[in-house]
Design a protein that fits this description.
The protein is 42% helix and 18% strand. It has 15 helices and 18 strands. The longest helix has 27 residues.
Length: 458
């Protein structure tokens, strides 16, 4: 604990001595980070392969390439975002005054990274922290330790620990870090751990940004383009072997389209991942045995209509479709976070909405349909971090869309400009002249002053 307190103190001193880091300094640090990522790309890919069985293509598109794009975007716009902005000042009240707002860094930031995207979900918040002018300590996941080691080497090579530091370790390490008085805590992971992080932060009134999970539904309406819908759903669901917080957790399909949808899903799995998905370079692996066992248990007492094969030694579970699990089954009680896809039918769109609303608001709701009226009806009667028509997961690729959940699926938003804002405090400025000082606001208060004030505040 004393070592972590010492580290926090070092970062605090560095932050104050450098006067909150100039914009040029931040841009230089972002460039150093970008250069180092490019230099170490093969090492990052190898680590992601060892930890999660990711192909080089998937590693680039969902982790390395995405981060390089985000760095480029932020470098391009940072000076504009950070510039002090003038806002209107009511001259009836503030005579000869000027008002401004400016984004200032929060200070010392603690970032908790998960194991499912162990590079992207370290770097994306870190980029925001750097852009906003903070120092950072990053706690990586012990479940993806190969990637964590590469990250530790990469960061320590280009940044001093008084500025940015990667910390590896167990849950004990995480607890020791959360006990300290940070200026902000950023956490990505499960809602259960997120609650503990939030509780610890509350002891110091520390602001938090929580990126959690939830059961993201995919609603297929009777007028949907089934071939395109199932193609996109198979990609989204089985990306990273289903270990994605934004993955469709289950499908709600209109009963008239159910059989066609199931047939199309089976065809698409074969088209994308081959007859033997175990040999597919595009299909990742379960992170560890504990999660493998959890997923296997979720399949107990279910009707498997496709897949179900597994190999514990290789941490492989085939893409699996489960037919009509009961609402009370564990599969429908917790976020699946694996390559298991329940399919449930409904009669009316109102039934599908009621089904979705029985859970906490998810990160996303995916709607596959042609009718704008029906889409708007779903949007109006549900709550989620995002809602997407005729696709899934792709919303995260738009750097201009703030990413985050609602309540149990998350608190706060980040990505692109939203990351800069999330890791900043808004400071307000009022500059008032002394050349004119009417006595209107000062006692004694008269009827004349009262009438003038009422006119001014209309």
């Amino acid at each position: 604990m004393s070592d972590f307190q010492s580290l926090l103190t070092k970062q605090s001193i560095f932050f104050r001595e450098e006067a909150y880091f100039t914009i040029d300094f931040r841009l230089k640090m972002l460039q150093k980070l970008e250069d180092s990522i490019r230099k170490n790309e093969s090492k990052i890919n190898e680590a992601l392969k060892e930890d999660l069985g990711k192909s080089a293509f998937e590693a680039y598109t969902t982790e390395v390439g995405y981060i390089l794009f985000e760095i480029s975007h932020i470098k391009k716009h940072l000076k504009k975002w950070a510039k002090r902005k003038k806002v209107k000042t009511p001259q009836k009240i503030f005579f000869y005054s000027k008002s401004y707002i400016e984004h200032k860094p929060r200070g010392q930031v603690l970032i908790f990274a998960p194991w499912n995207y162990p590079f992207q979900l370290v770097m994306s918040p870190l980029i925001g922290a750097i852009a906003a002018g903070n120092t950072a300590v990053i706690k990586t996941s012990e479940y993806a330790d190969n990637t964590a080691k590469v990250l530790e080497d990469l960061i320590s090579e280009i940044f001093p620990e008084k500025y940015i530091k990667v910390v590896r370790g167990s849950s004990t390490t995480a607890q020791q870090l959360t006990d300290l008085d940070w200026d902000m805590v950023f956490y990505t992971g499960s809602a259960s751990i997120g609650k503990k992080v939030y509780e610890n932060a509350a002891k110091h009134l520390t602001p938090v940004l929580l990126e959690l999970g939830g059961k993201c539904p995919a609603i297929i309406y009777k007028d949907a383009n089934i071939n395109v819908s199932t193609r996109r759903l198979v990609w989204a669901k089985f990306l990273n072997a289903g270990q994605t917080c934004l993955a469709p957790d289950y499908i709600l399909v209109h009963k008239s389209a159910k059989n066609k949808v199931i047939k199309a899903l089976k065809k698409e799995i074969t088209e994308q991942l081959g007859q033997n998905t175990k040999e597919s370079a595009a299909f990742a692996r379960i992170i560890n045995e504990a999660h493998f066992d959890r997923l296997q248990k979720l399949l107990e007492q279910t009707e498997i209509i496709y897949g179900g094969e597994s190999d514990k030694e290789k941490r492989y579970i085939a893409p699996t479709i489960v037919d009509e699990p009961s609402v009370s089954h564990p599969l429908m009680q917790e976020e699946i976070f694996g390559p298991i896809l329940p399919v449930i039918s409904y009669e009316k769109i109102e039934d599908a909405i009621r089904f979705v609303n029985r859970n906490h608001p998810p990160l996303a709701i995916y709607c596959f349909l042609k009718s704008n009226k029906t889409f708007e009806f779903i949007e109006r009667h549900t709550t989620s971090g995002s809602i997407v028509k005729n696709d899934a997961i792709l919303q995260i690729a738009n750097i201009n869309l703030p990413f985050g959940g609602v309540r149990q699926s998350g608190i706060g938003r980040y990505h692109g400009k939203s990351s800069f804002e999330a890791f900043s405090e808004v400071r307000t400025f009022l500059k008032h002249s002394t050349s004119f000082d009417p006595k209107l606001r000062y006692p004694p208060y008269t009827e004349k002053k009262w009438n003038l004030i009422k006119k001014a505040l209309k």
